[in-house]
Design a protein that fits this description.
By secondary structure, this protein is mostly helical. Among the domains are: 2-24 and 152-223, no CATH class; 29-126, Cytochrome Bc1 Complex, Chain D, domain 2 (Orthogonal Bundle), CATH 1.10.760.10; 418-472, no CATH class. It has helices at 2-23, 29-40, 60-64, 69-77, 79-84, 88-97, 110-126, 152-184, 193-197, 200-223, 241-247, 252-255, 270-277, 291-298, 316-335, 342-359, 387-393, 399-402, 419-428, 443-451, 467-470; strands at residues 300-301, 306-307. It has a two-stranded antiparallel sheet with strand order 1-2. Helix 15 (316-335) packs across helix 16 (342-359).
Length: 472
């Protein structure tokens, strides 16, 4: 009985260790790049060598090299807590950058931090093309720049070694049982390895492990349902935020005017585009190729500078005649020729084909009508989020959630949009109390701020972590 119990315990231990090893987090440059973009890039320069709101991260090794690695972890997670302990390096850095407070990152694990540091090292040493994936516990890059590697083989090797050890010990215990039984002159009643693996207790454990693994996988994937960080789908029109918001400095709310007054930021109607493009008819990058799609959607004839009468009733051939004439005339004017040449005919045909492809699909058969943009940011139906509450009342910049949109040619989902990400923001974000009538009713906090009893009010203080604030 003792031998059987010992053998079973060995197998249990092997299975637990195997599960722990195969589900443990990995430190990687790829993960570090994602975390840096979502958490660090708002304050630290992407080239790692330039001081921005925060210091250049390239100097972290020199700044913290004389201190235990755990001190750096503590600084990144909660700098103010480390400063309050009188830590020499923390106090020194605070003296250089106060009153700017480093954002708390309590949700970052040691592996997360090491991934970010590996990405920083990779950027400095290997340049932006560096794709090294594996680092050691000290944060040093193990592979050479440009060679993406994985340490999964190490876990499988350990898994195989543990499995071999379990089988070996099981055989040793089985033989010991046989010898003991022979000495006592009694028949050996121990179970074989096959009998142990198919016993009721082992089957129960296997089912339990599958339930745990299945539940973990289901919950993890459900949390990410509908949210795809770095999702950047191709759009029906090649609209560049980098050109409009970055180069020409157009305010976000000029186009997304719903952000200041409603739950939704809204996708701008074609009429909003026409406010500018009734005059600006040739794009700086794509010429007539993309702007003609806007005109065809709205029913505007750029050749006559007038909206087309009864446009919705026109056939595709009639629409084609209007806009291919515009494309052809623009090509002739741009190239200073008397009539279309073969290259011009090809340009006209290609642009018309692209127009039809962008403005029609299986559900929308006609060119006329709204442009069907592909949605990028999406939250589950049970989550309530109001842009007006954050933009108008909270006075947040769009970039805080959507990232540096003015630098994006093709917009992507910048932040994870997860519950933990939102909660962490509510814990750290200071409420704009000053000259904000929305918060006049919070007399207690106003009095505490005036008396010096309180130096700030966060969203958490005014109920920002209550479930009902975000969930119906």
């Amino acid at each position: 009985m003792l031998c059987n119990a010992l053998r079973t315990n060995i197998l249990y231990t092997f299975l637990f260790l195997s599960f722990a090893l195969t589900t443990s987090a990995q430190v990687s440059v790829d993960a570090g790049k994602t975390i840096f973009s979502n958490v660090c890039a708002s304050c630290h320069a992407r080239d790692m060598k330039t001081a921005a709101t925060g210091p250049a991260l390239s100097g972290y090794a020199d700044a913290w090299g004389d201190y235990p690695r755990e001190d750096l972890y503590s600084w990144i997670r909660n700098s103010q807590a480390l400063i309050s302990t009188g830590h020499p390096r923390a106090v020194e850095l605070w003296a250089l950058y106060k009153p700017t407070v480093m954002t708390n990152n309590l949700g970052l694990t040691d592996d997360d931090i090491e991934s970010v540091l590996a990405y920083v090292d990779c950027k400095i040493i290997g340049g932006p093309e560096c794709t090294v994936a594996v680092v050691n516990g000290g944060g040093d890059v193990v592979g050479a720049a440009g060679a993406k590697k994985s340490n999964s083989w190490m876990y499988w090797l350990i898994f195989a070694l543990l499995g071999g050890l379990a089988l070996f010990l099981s055989r040793v215990i089985n033989n010991m049982g046989r010898i003991a039984a022979a000495k006592e002159g009694v028949p050996y009643t121990g179970k074989t390895l096959a009998q142990t693996l198919t016993s009721k207790s082992m089957i129960t454990f296997g089912i339990f492990a599958l339930v745990i693994l299945g539940g973990y996988t289901t919950v993890t994937r459900a949390m990410n349902l509908g949210r795809q960080q770095a999702y950047a789908p191709e759009q029906p029109i090649n609209f560049s935020h980098e050109t409009h918001a970055g180069l020409h400095k157009i305010e976000c709310q000029y186009c997304h005017d719903g952000a200041r007054r409603s739950k939704h930021a809204v996708i701008p109607a074609t009429n909003t585009c026409m406010n500018c493009h009734a005059a600006i008819k040739i794009g700086s990058e794509h010429g007539t190729a993309e702007l003609t799609k806007i005109y065809a959607s709205a029913g505007y004839d750029p050749s006559t500078n007038k909206y087309i009468e009864n446009y919705d009733d026109l056939s595709e051939d009639e629409i084609k005649a209007i806009f291919t004439k515009w494309i052809g005339d623009s090509y002739i004017l741009e190239n200073g020729i008397a009539e279309l040449d073969k290259e011009g005919e090809r340009v006209v045909a290609d642009q018309w084909k692209g127009l039809v492809s962008s403005l029609t699909n299986e559900q929308k058969k006609k060119i006329q009508g709204p442009i069907e943009w592909t949605r990028i940011h999406n939250l589950p139906d049970h989550v309530y989020f109001s842009h007006a509450q954050h933009v108008t009342v909270g006075k947040l910049e769009c970039q805080q959630c959507h990232g540096p949109v003015e630098e994006m040619d093709l917009v992507e989902q910048h932040a994870p949009l997860s519950m933990g990400w939102c909660i962490n923001c509510h814990r750290e974000t200071e409420v704009q109390f000053k000259d904000n009538e929305y918060y006049d009713s919070y007399m207690k906090y106003h009095e505490e701020l005036a008396s010096g009893e309180r130096d700030k009010v966060t969203v958490e203080d005014i109920g920002g972590l209550e479930c009902q604030k975000c969930h119906y």
